[in-house]
Amino acid sequence: MNGMQLLTWIPLVPLLAMFAIMATGKNPNLRDAVSIIAGIITFALVVNLAGSVSLDNAPTLVLAEPVPGLTLALSPEPLGILFALIASFLWPVTIIYAIGYMRAHHEGNQTRFYALFAVSIAATIGIALSANMLTLFLFYELLTLATYPLVTHAGTDAARRAGRIYLGILMSTSVGFLLLAMVWTWQLTGTLDFVEGGIFDADVDHGIVSILLVLYVFGTGKAAVMPFHRWLPAAMVAPTPVSALLHAVAVVKAGVFTILKVSVYIFGVDLIADLAVADWLAGLAALTIVLASLVAMTKDNLKARLAYSTISQLSYIVLGAMMGVAAGVIGGGMHIAMHAFGKITLFFCAGAIMVAAHKTKVSELDGMGRRMPLTMLAFLIGALSIIGLPPFGGTWSKWMLVQGTLDTGIWLLTAALLVSTLLNVMYLLVIPVRAFFKAPADDAEPGIKEAPLPSLLAIGVAVTGCVVLFFIPDSIHQLVSGVLR
User: Fold this and answer.
1) Which residues lie below 8 Å from residue 45, measured CB to CB, with a gap of 6+?
2) Is residue 269 part of a domain?
3) Which of 482, 80, 55 is nearest to 261 (CA)?
4) Which of 37, 238, 306, 463 is most exposed by smallest CB count within 10 Å?
C-alpha cells in the first residue's frame, strides 16, 4: 500500500471492526477473535506507514473541506507515528487481557464494551495522525464520547456519577477553552495546520500568544493538569481494561500528546522559550507532579493510588512541552511511550489481583506475592519503570526530562522531578514489598491463585515492553527528535 492508502485504512479498520464485533456478539469467541485480529491488522498497517513513508515529504489525506482553506486531513509526523504505534500495539494486548478479566468477572454488555473500545482506538489514531488542529479536535471529542459509556459500564449510581464528572470536565474544557483557542488562532494566522517551527509570525504579540497557550493547556482536560484532574480518579469505577485504556492507551495520552503537538507545531519551541507564561505553566506542571504524588501516598485503594500516579506522570510530559528546550520535548515524547507500558502493566496487575483475589486495597495485599508471584513480580517491574530506574524503559525519558530542566536553569523544576521520583518509590514500591515480605493476614484464605491465562499473557507482553524499551531508546529518541528538524 502507498501512503494515502495506509492513511485511509489505519483509522478505518477499527471502525469496521466495531460493526463486525456487533454482528458477532452472540458468539463471544468469534467476537473476541475479531477484536484481536483487527488490532493486529491495525498495528501492522501503522508499522508499514512508519517504515514506508518519508516524514520529510509526508502524504496528506484530505477527508473534507468544511470551510475554504480549513480541511479535515490526516498526515503522519514523528510524534503522531509514535503515538499511533503505541495505541495500535496495546489495543490487541488490552483485548487479550480483557477476555480473561471480563469473563472471570462475569461483566455484562461485553459486546458493547469491545465495540466502543474499537471506536476509541479509531479516535485515538485519528488524533495521532491529524494534519491540523481542527481534525485533532473532532477526533478528541469523539474519543470523549466513545469512552463515556465505558466509564459508566457498570451502570451503578457511582458509575453514572463518575460519568457526569468525566463528561462535564472534558467537554467543558475543550469547548470553553480549546475551541476558543483554535478560533482565535485561525483569526490571527489564517491556518490551523501543524507546521514545523509553529504558525505564528515572528512579530506576534507575546501577550496574545501567552493567553492562547494558557487556553490550549487548560483546554486539553485529558492531560489532567490541576485543577482539571478530578475526572481521572472518578473514572476508576470503570472495569480495569477501561482504566488501562484511559491511563495508557488512549485518553490521557491523547491529552498530553495534544499539548506536546501544539507546543511544537502551533507555537514552536523557540516561541515557547520566549514566553514568560510558559515558565508559569511549567511551574504548574511541576506542582501537579508533586501534589498528585503526595495524594497518591494517602490512597489505600490500589486503583485510586495508580490514578493519582498517572496525574503526576502526565505532568512530566506537560512540563517537557513547556520548557522550550529540545531535551524537554524529546523527553516528553519518550515519556509517552515509557509511561504507557509501565502504567498499563500496573493496571493489568491491579485488575488481576481484583479478579483472582478480590482485593482492591493496598492494605489487603500482605503476602499476596506468595499466592500470585507472577503478577506481583510484574507489578514490581512496572513500578521500577515508572520510578525511572534501570534496566527499565522509564529511565531514559526521565533522564531527558531532567536534562531539559537543567537546560532551562530553573532549578525548582529539577527539584520537582527528583522529589517526585522519591515519592514514586514510597507509594509504589511499598506494594510489592508488602506482597513479598509481609505475612498475609489470613494464611488459611483458600482459592487465591494467578489470574486467568489471557490476562497473564497480556501482563507478560506489557512487562516485557518495560524491559525492552530500556535497550532500544535510540530508535524512539531518533523518531521524536524528528519534530525538531
Assistant:
1) 1, 6, 9, 10, 13, 88
2) no
3) 80
4) 37
Q: Is the pTM of this model over 0.85?
A: yes
CB neighbourhood size of 295 (10 A)? 19
Contacts of 295-299 spanning 24+ positions with Cβ under 8 A: 296/423, 296/427, 297/423, 297/426, 297/427, 299/362
Print the domain residue range for 427.
Answer: 279-485
Q: What is the mean pLDDT of residues 453-457?
A: 89
Cell numbers at 483, concatenated: 519534530
Q: Cell numbers at residue 300, please?
A: 489505600
DSSP per residue over 100-134, as a string? Answer: HHHHHTT-S-HHHHHHHHHHHHHHHHHHHTBSBHH
Residue 85 has pLDDT above 90, yes or no: yes
Instruction: Please give the Cα distance from 361 to 240 (Å, whole number).
Output: 14
Task: Say whether pLDDT at 26 is over 90.
Answer: no
Number of H helices, E strands in the chain: 22, 2
End-to-end Cα spacing for the chain: 27
Number of folded domains in the chain?
A: 1
- Give the pLDDT score at 442: 61
Asked whether residue 395 is assigned to any structural domain, the reply reads yes
Tell me what the pLDDT averaged over the chain comes to: 89
Decide: 210 and 267 in contact? Cβ < 8 Å. no
Asked, for residue 440, whether it belongs to a domain, the answer is yes
* pLDDT of 444 strictly over 60: no
DSSP state of 152: T
Phi and psi, residue 369, nearest 5° = -65, -20
Tell me what percent of the residues of the chain surpass a pLDDT of 90. 62
Give the up-direction half-sphere exposure of residue 166: CA atoms within 13 A in the CB hemisphere.
Answer: 28
C-alpha 48, offset from chain centre: 22
- CA 38/CA 101 separation, integer angstroms: 20
The Cα 80–Cα 392 span in angstroms is 24
pLDDT over 60 (residue 443): no
